Amino acid sequence: MTVQRGTEEQELRNRVDRYIAGARPESVFDAGADEAAVRLAARTPDGSTEFVDVVQLLGLFHLCRNGILRPGSQLPVLPETARLLAPVYLSAPQTLPVHLLVTVELIAQLPPYREPERLGAKAINLMNHGVAEDDLSSVAGAISLFLEAAAASSPDHPDLAAMLTGACSGWITVYQLTGDPSAVGHAVRTGEDSLAVPRPQARPEPANNLGIALRLRFDHDGDPDDLDRAIELLDAGLSLTPQDDAELPVRQNNLGIALGTRFGHSGHREDLDLAIAVLRRAGELLGPYRPERPGFLGDLAYFHWVRFELTGDRGDLEAAARHFEVAVTSQEEGLRQRAQAYLRAARAELAKGPRQKAWWE
Known about the structure:
Helices cover about 75% and strands about 0% of the residues. The protein is mostly helical. The protein starts with a helix and ends in a 10-residue tail after the last helix.
């Protein structure tokens, strides 16, 4: 925390404290307070470890100011509510949303409650920043915070599995950024820990993330048991995902790739057919505007091409060409180049016309 940011943060906290102590609202939430809030927000970058704390403080500041200064309104009961909730905060903080935890903490003047909800919130913020910016240090910081939050949680904490799953996802991201196979091992271990946590309600994330990690480990070690279990877990995660969930097409795609990978290993035709069906459904669910669309249809096109080479079915060739035409619009250079090469090959095959059967077929 810089000295400047710390000074402005303390100024806002002091203003909230003055209001709680009975200061006139217009003297507390004046133009100077607004300016301090703007400067504090501007000096706290998204993705920093302080971001969650600052945003929560700014939210409380605006909640007090906007709730108090409406014409004709009486003083809100927020301080009294916070004091009534203080015993709950101290004995069972996991029962309160994070923003309410912070409100109670500040207004009831309790010691900061950092673990595990605050740590988990910071971890999610760092992870989102790291993924968006391909920032390895942010992802590594998020993993550490997720594991710290998990270590601080009781065995029956409702978010324990989610914290371990977040660490698993982080290690998968590390592998994607670095190609380091040891990251896959860490992802599998944290994924197994997440899946082992008893949960009152089954959630798809632990099964899905562990399934991805096991498929990646198969890519390196070649153990078919890893791939079989990955498919089982990805299918289980998919079955737990609501039909209106934005992650549904992503999980369809993960399962389709795993099935196609098993076909490449075992040669079982049913895996290839099922992979194409699952990937086609993923493309349908994704819709025309999501940025993942070229990649998803590139995967589908590739397996149509594989089946064309296996059977000579012109329908698969036409489908491959049609989907490769979308894949070449990808912003990812490697995918775009691969799709262009396959599209040229598909068009060349289409130009030859329908394949003639040999007399012995």
